[in-house]
Amino acid sequence: MASSSWEEFFAVHLPPPDYEDNRSLLKEFCERHEQYGNKIVLVTSGGTTVPLEHNTVRFVDNFSAGTRGSASAEYFLEHGYAVIFMHRQKSLEPFTRHFSGQKLLDMLDIQERGPNTTITVKPDSVDVLAPILLRYKAAHAAGAILHVSFTTVSDYFWLLRAACECLAYLGPRAMLYLAAAVSDFYIPKDKVPTHKMQSASGPPVIQLHLVPKMLAPLVNLWVPTAYVVSFKLETDENLLIPKARLALEKYKHKMVVANLLQSRHHRVILVSPESTQELVLTREEVHAGVDIESAIVAEIVRLHSDHLSLMGESFSPP
Ligand code: PAZ
How much is the pTM? Predict the structure, then answer.
């Protein structure tokens, strides 16, 4: 499998159609919060696709639903961060994640009385809906959250770099929390057919190439003073910590949140150059619907705050 450099990747793959609009939104959001002296976290969430055709009918996808990212975004807001929520289109989003499927409709009652139809929240659902609605309204009224979305792995990288360009001005007050499941493989643009693949042409031979490791330019060039947290997913426990440590040594960022596919919603390990800390939910907590993201975010916020105290006023914008 061949691999290209990150520069080559950006030279070959065009930005997505909504790129300039998103860049303006990111710029406005970062400038506003920078002025107020706020901390901003970029939360990436959900999985990227690898299209098999330019007019895409089929694509390679991954399992991620955006549970981790959408829950984490809510906890960062609670800790006073402004949040750029960069997510896979149609994956879970903060606040609405609580009402997926038919849940919201099941909370409502409808009365049809002639021309006057009224819709109300069922009395026993008010206690569930009210606190979430209040937090949602407060975040939006304060302009504390910006949603931007991607679908393909190439869209993801364009958006990630655009966000980094804006976040660089915040120095260490910017945090990157890279929870999205980003494909390690892709098909170079010139190898992707324009139209839907035809079965009449026989079984297709698809060669995947290695995606360049974007964490290297991100940490060294795009946001060299930001607090960068990456995520590492494995399915083999024996690989998890060694690979998290390898990533830290290679990219020299602040932390890797390591998790296994099978247990990711109740167990993670926070790996930093100095320490390894396991966070595990008890059976009772899982049963009670406690989000492990509450503990992950609380710990990372604490470490970020320690880091900011250490840095003092030493940062000057690029
Ligand atoms: O979206 P989700 O909650 O189902 O899964 C979260 C996750 C496993 C994608 C995330 O915790 C993670 O590990 N992201 C990085 C994956 C990777 O190694 O590329």
Answer: 0.96
